[in-house]
Design brief:
With 121 residues, the chain is mainly β. The chain has no helices and eleven strands. The strands form two sheets. Strands 2, 4, 5, 6, 9, 10 and 11 form a seven-stranded mixed sheet that branches. A four-stranded antiparallel sheet has the order 1-3-8-7, with no helix packed on it.
């Protein structure tokens, strides 16, 4: 069994910062791409940022220069540092990882349960 557990969401004022964490645990053989998505009420799920095993990153245009994705491969953990937050960043943020588990070595998509980020004064 593999699971992703997020933490770090909450309520913050516009211009503030938050740091999200997502740890993968369980029967893991190898973790590949990790990413953060977000979904606002009534809207589709959108990619925020992703990071490869070598550290190569990609960001949505709406968060470039404000958000930074990073990972700790030894801890199977991905982070999202969010600065200069805006009300339009309000959403449920979901962690994603492509993981090869240790019992059948088959790669699969895994998702966290989501953490709420609310940007409001």
């Amino acid at each position: 069994q593999v699971q992703l557990v997020e933490s770090g969401g909450g309520l913050v004022q516009p211009g503030g910062s938050l740091r999200l964490s997502c740890a993968a645990s369980g029967s893991i053989y190898s973790v590949y791409t990790m990413a953060w998505y977000r979904q606002a009420p009534g809207k589709q799920r959108d990619l925020v940022a992703h990071i490869g095993t070598g550290g190569l990153t990609n960001y949505a245009d709406s968060v470039k220069g404000r958000f930074t994705i990073s990972r700790d491969n030894a801890k199977n953990t991905v982070y999202l540092q969010m600065n200069s937050l805006k009300p339009e960043d309000t959403a449920v943020y979901l962690c994603y990882a492509f993981i090869r588990n240790s019992y059948d070595r088959v790669g699969r998509d895994y998702w966290g349960q989501g953490t709420q980020v609310t940007v409001s004064s």
